[in-house]
Amino acid sequence: MIFWKLVIFFRLDRSRYFHSLRTANISKVLAKNYGLSQKKCYKAALLHDIAKNYSDSKLLELVSKYNISLSDFELNTLAVVHSKVGRAVLEYKFGVKYFDILQAVEFHSLGSKNMNDIAKVVFIADYIEEGRDFITDDFRKDVLAEKDVNRAVIMVYDKTFDYLRKKGLKLASVSVEAYDFFKGVIDEKK
Ligand SMILES: [Fe+2]
Ligand SMILES: [Fe+2]
What we know:
- The protein is mainly alpha-helical.
- It contains eleven helices and no strands.
- The chain has one domain: Orthogonal Bundle (Hypothetical protein af1432).
- The protein is 71% helix and 0% strand.
- Helix 2 packs across helix 8, helix 3 crosses helix 8 and helix 8 packs across helix 10.
- One fe (ii) ion (FE2) binds next to loops.
């Protein structure tokens, strides 16, 4: 893992580097909760923001280089595009082949109904890592106490949607679709 730590150390600013380490560490805890590979979750989380420090123009250059398709929402919210570009950089520049890790990086900003369990872990971990001061310790504890990964995803979406609605910001349709999908999965289990 030292190679990947160095890669992100040199690609990210200090605060984003430490955010990545914290996200990776809490991913391990989540992986244990859900009975998933701690190593894979750690690696996916460590790499999730690999493209975060690119400028908008660099992101758009890579979008065209790697033929990445963007939704209208993404075109209007370039801050989320580092997810898809990050996946492409890992796949094409670094030769990462493990599909679940690539998907986790691709989906970490908005989520997706297609998220595999490792992607769900990274999605949750990115939101609740210890450096996030927009959530309370109680919320973090509640998420960590939840043993059902889909319920934890819904907890994160609930908070995110609340925040965006209060700010009068649009929700991405892929996020709403994912929310409805995982709500359905939970309801079916009842
Ligand atoms: Fe990110
Ligand atoms: Fe992140």
